[in-house]
Amino acid sequence: MEPVPGPSFYPSFLLQFAFGFFPQFYQRKWGRIFTALGVFTFLRLPYLSGLPMLGSYQLVGLFLGAILGIWTREFILVLLGRNEIALPKQSDQILTDWMIRNPTGKSNLPIWYSTYFGFILFLLILIVLCFFQYQGLGLVTGLGIQEYLYFPSLSSREAMGLSCKILVPVSLVILYLFSEERSMPTPSKDSLSEQLRFGIFVGFGINLLVMCIQFVWSLEFFSEGTLESVSAGRTTGLLQDSGSASWILPVLSLLWISKLVNTWRKSKERFSLVLTIFTFFFVTWLGLKQGKAFWVIWTISIAIGMIHLTTDLWIVSITKKRITRIGLYFLIPIVGFFTLYGLSFLQKDWDLVELSKRTMTAIPVWKSDPYLALKRMDVVRAELLTICMEGIKNNPWLGNGIGSFPLAMLDPFRIGTKTSSPLIDFPPNFYLWLVHDLGILGAIVFLFYIGLFLWERGLWKQTLLLVLPLFFGVQFQNSDGAFLCFYLILFGEKGTGYSLSFDKLRKTIWFSPLLLILSVGLPLNYALFYSQRYWDFGIGSEFRKTQLKEFQTAATLPPRAPNFEYEFHGKVWEWKLSEYGSARSGKIYLETNNRSPVVEILFLNSDRTLIKQELFTESKLGYSWTGECPKGASYIRLKSRSKLEFRLPRSQFDANNRIQF
C-alpha cells in the first residue's frame, strides 16, 4: 500500500524471505528459531542498508518466507508419501534424513474448528472493509483498483497504508503461528513454544549487546530509522524504536529472570542466582536511557516478583502468605512515591528523573483537574487521549475503521483537538485504540477471540505480562511487538498446552459447532452493520463527495511546486466531466516517459454506459487527444493496456475537481 521503489524494496525483502523460507524448509526446529530470531534483528534491516522502507513492510519478507516454507515443506512431504509409505532406503540418505527431521504433523480437528480460523476470518473481513473504506466501490463498477486523493495531500493508497501498519503485522503473525501449530507432530505446544522462546532469547541477547554499545559508545550506532529516539537520548537496540524497546526490554527480561529463578529454586545452582542478579542490575542500567514505560513496567513487576519470591521462601502458611502479600502490595505505591520524590531533586538528564519531576508537579492538581495533571505528566498523550475520545463519541458502536486514528490526525477537515506534536501516532493505549477503531461491537469480537485462545491454552496468568505494556501504546502496530504479544497470548512462557476445562468441553457434540457459529457469525454481523456506511460514500469520482463537498481526483500524487502537476500511476482512471460547454472540447495531453501499446479515452453517461470510445495519439513526450465530448457524457475514463505513469496540470481540473479541456 505504501509506494516504495522496487530497487529499495526487493533487496531487503529477498534477504528476509530467504532467512524465513530455507530454515523452515530444512527443519521445523531451526525454522522456528530463525524466524523468532529474525523478528528481533531484521525489523530495521531496510534502514540499516540505507533503504527508505517504513510501516507495514517491516517484516513482510520474513513472515511470508516462513509461512511459505512451512506450507512447501508439508506439501512436498505429503506428496512423497510420508504418511503412507516407509522411509526411503539408505541410498536416499538426504531424503531419509529430511523426513526424520520433520515427522508427521497431526491435527485432531478440522481447520474450521481451530481457534485460529475465526480470528483469521475476522482479520480478512477487516481488510475487505478497510479496502472499501479507502478505495471506494469502484471495483464493482469495473474500474479496478485506482488511486484517489483521499485528502488534498494524501492518496487513498497511503490512507489505507496507515491501516496496514496494524493489519499486516497482526495478520502475518497470526497466520504464521497458525501454520506452525497445524504442522505440529503432536497436539502438545511444548516444543513449539520452547523453540520460539529460544529464538526470541537469542534475538533479545543480540539487542542487549547493541543497546550496550549504544549506551557506552554512541546512540547513533545501528539506529537508522528510529525517528526521534536518538534525539530523545534513548537506546533502541535493533527494535523498531524506543517505544518498542521500553516495553519489550522489561518484559523479555522478566521472562529470562523468571526462568533463572525457577532453575535456581529447583537445583539450588548458584550460577543461576548470580546470573539473575547480574541481569537485574544490567537491565536497570540500560533502563537509564529508556522511556517512562520501561520504569513503570520494570519497577512494578520487580516489586511484585520480589514480594512473591520472598514470601514463598520465608512463609510456609498459605493464609499468612496471602495476608503478607496484600499488605506489601499497599506499600508499593507509598515506596514508589517517596522514590520519585527523591529522584525529582537530581540534576540528571534521565527519563526516570524527568518522570519524577512531572509526577511531583501533577500530584497537587490531580483531584481538582485530572486532565491538567495528565498534561503535566505527558502533553502529547493528553492530546492523543482527547482526540481519541472525540473519535469514540462519533462512532461508539462500530468504530471509525481499523487504522483510522492516524488518518484522523492528518484530516484537514476534522473539527476538534489538534496535536502539538509533528509525529503521527496511535491512541495512548491498546484498549482505547480497540474502541476507537473497532467500536464496542468490534472490541467484543476481538476480545472474544483473545479470550478463546487464553481459555483453550489455560494461560490466564501469562497475560499479566501484557497488561502494563498495553497501557502504554498499541504494541501491535510494529511486527516485533505483534509477534511478542501473540506469542505470550497463544503459547505462553512454558507452553502449558490445552486447559482441561476447554479440552473437556471440546469433546462434546455441541461445543465445537457452537464456537464455529460464534467465530463466523460475530465478524459477519459486525461487517454487515459496518458496511452500511459505504452506501453513502458513492463510487468513482463521487467517492466521499458528501464529505469533501467536491468530486474526487483519481490521482496518485497531488500537485506540487514548481510545476503544480498531478501524477497518475496505473492502468485505469475516471473523472467527472465539467458541465460548462466551453470546457468540454479541446485537448488532453498526457506527459509521460512510459510507453503502452494502446491508450484510449471512453465517454460515459450518468449511468456509466459507454457512449463513445477513441484512441490517444502517441508523441515523443507522451500521448494526446483532441476533440469534443459527445452529448450526454458525464464521465471520461482513460485506459492503458500497460501500466502508465503520466502527469496532468492542475489547470486541467476546475474548482470542483471536474476535468476540463
Automatic annotation (TrEMBL):
<feature type="transmembrane region" description="Helical">
    <location>
        <begin position="270"/>
        <end position="288"/>
    </location>
</feature>
<feature type="transmembrane region" description="Helical">
    <location>
        <begin position="198"/>
        <end position="217"/>
    </location>
</feature>
<feature type="transmembrane region" description="Helical">
    <location>
        <begin position="294"/>
        <end position="316"/>
    </location>
</feature>
<feature type="transmembrane region" description="Helical">
    <location>
        <begin position="328"/>
        <end position="346"/>
    </location>
</feature>
<keyword id="KW-1133">Transmembrane helix</keyword>
<feature type="transmembrane region" description="Helical">
    <location>
        <begin position="464"/>
        <end position="489"/>
    </location>
</feature>
<keyword id="KW-0472">Membrane</keyword>
<feature type="transmembrane region" description="Helical">
    <location>
        <begin position="430"/>
        <end position="452"/>
    </location>
</feature>
<keyword id="KW-0812">Transmembrane</keyword>
<protein>
    <recommendedName>
        <fullName>Ligase</fullName>
    </recommendedName>
</protein>
<feature type="transmembrane region" description="Helical">
    <location>
        <begin position="159"/>
        <end position="178"/>
    </location>
</feature>
<feature type="transmembrane region" description="Helical">
    <location>
        <begin position="59"/>
        <end position="80"/>
    </location>
</feature>
<feature type="transmembrane region" description="Helical">
    <location>
        <begin position="509"/>
        <end position="529"/>
    </location>
</feature>
<feature type="transmembrane region" description="Helical">
    <location>
        <begin position="111"/>
        <end position="134"/>
    </location>
</feature>
<feature type="transmembrane region" description="Helical">
    <location>
        <begin position="6"/>
        <end position="23"/>
    </location>
</feature>
<feature type="transmembrane region" description="Helical">
    <location>
        <begin position="30"/>
        <end position="47"/>
    </location>
</feature>
<feature type="transmembrane region" description="Helical">
    <location>
        <begin position="237"/>
        <end position="258"/>
    </location>
</feature>
